[in-house]
Design brief:
The protein contains one helix and five strands, in the order ββαβββ. The chain has 69 residues and is mostly beta strands. It has a single domain (2-63), classed as Roll (Ubiquitin-like (UB roll)). The protein has a five-stranded mixed β-sheet with strand order 2-1-5-3-4, with no helix packed on it. The longest helix is centred in the N-terminal third of the chain and has 7 residues, at 19-25.
């Protein structure tokens, strides 16, 4: 299975992954600080562990930064 992660092809071997498993496989250090878009739609954090990815899904990890003056 191949998905697109942050615009790049990301091969997935074995059984389908959940979004939470993908965060771990991609070695995201603070998954609680990441918003996830799946095929253009934001996914709630409560759904990360139950949403299975499918071949050709497009996933984007979005990090919101605070700041300003």
């Amino acid at each position: 299975m191949k998905i697109k992660l942050n615009g790049k092809v990301f091969p997935v071997d074995g059984p389908a992954l959940t979004v939470l498993e993908l965060l771990k496989k991609a070695q995201v250090e603070k998954p609680e600080m990441v918003s996830v878009q799946l095929n253009g739609e934001f996914l709630g954090h409560e759904n990360f562990g139950t949403t299975a990815l499918k071949d050709t899904d497009e996933v984007d990890f979005v990090y919101f930064m605070g700041g300003g003056a």
